[in-house]
Amino acid sequence: MRGCETIVVDHGSTDGSLELIRSRFSEARVIEQANVGMGGGNNAGMRAASGRYFLLLNSDAWLADGALERLVEFADGRPRTALIGPRLRNPDGTLQRSVRAFPTLWRLSTEYFFLRKLAPGTDLLNPLYCGGFDHGSVREVDWVSGACLFVRRAATEDVGLFDEDYFMFSEETDWCYRFGRTGWQVVFYPGAEVVHVGGASHGGRLYRENLRGQLRFFAKHHGPQEAERARRLLIVALQLRSKVFGGERGRQYGDGARWLRSGSVNVLLNSGP
């Protein structure tokens, strides 16, 4: 994205990325810091940026031709829109479903107890992943995948940046929830497209952080009792999954269930990785 203010936030990479950036993209500003999580990295970039919009792009994603210009034009016409999610594509060109609903106990149940497998294309049994959403029209939504987010500076000045208590996972859910609660819109816009590898930036690791992020969202926005209900629901679901699936996947679910049993929500939210 030459010609635009470009900021790269690095959390201790060792693969030669910084050397490549400095040799080929000398105009880019590089910020090196300790790994403070996805939200903390994005926050560092936004604090350093000067534009009226922020384009937050994961390291495993890139924009299709013309996507940035279309996002700016679209945002200029919708002044109450805080955050825009473009349409995501897999590297093979297929659609990557990116629109989500805010988690509730029922929505968690449809995901973790396999109910969505019965009717994945419906909102009734696949509400968490918005199974009935066609990703072909402009719509106001609950939240979108954080692989690429186009954000209005004025909205962040009103609501604040990412909550850095979320290390990774659910930080964009929390942010979109806060935008909506204060009257800003979160919108899905299929007129701009981004290719996203999906999971490449964390390689499927940090499963406990995924669970912790969900508990933090419930505790923050629905209170400790609802968060405890979510913890118990997840324990039962992951114990079931650990028996259904074998190999590394089953072990991951079993480890998640043991971690959830190791303490209350308050203890888990304040424990280490």
Quickly list its features.
single chain; 273 residues; alpha+beta; Spore Coat Polysaccharide Biosynthesis Protein SpsA, Chain A; seven-stranded mixed beta sheet; two-stranded parallel ribbon; 11 strands; 41% helix; globular
**Contiguous runs where pLDDT drops below 50 for at least 5 residues:** none
How far is the first residue's CA from the last residue's CA? Answer: 35 Å
Strand-residue fraction? 15-25%
Largest sheet: 7 strands, mixed
How many alpha or pi helices? 10
- Total number of beta strands: 11
By CATH reckoning, the class of the domain at 51-98 and 135-196 would read Alpha Beta
CATH topology of the domain at 51-98 and 135-196: Spore Coat Polysaccharide Biosynthesis Protein SpsA, Chain A
Radius of gyration: 19 Å
Task: Work out the helicity level.
Answer: 40-55%
Corresponding CATH superfamily of the domain at 51-98 and 135-196: Spore Coat Polysaccharide Biosynthesis Protein SpsA, Chain A
Write up what this structure looks like:
By secondary structure, the chain is α+β, with helices and mostly antiparallel strands. Among the domains are: 51-98 and 135-196, Spore Coat Polysaccharide Biosynthesis Protein SpsA, Chain A, CATH 3.90.550.10; 207-269, no CATH class. 41% of the residues lie in helices and 18% in strands. The strands form three sheets. Strands 3, 4, 5, 6, 8, 10 and 11 form a seven-stranded mixed sheet that branches. β1, α1 and β2 form a beta-alpha-beta unit. The relative contact order is 0.15.
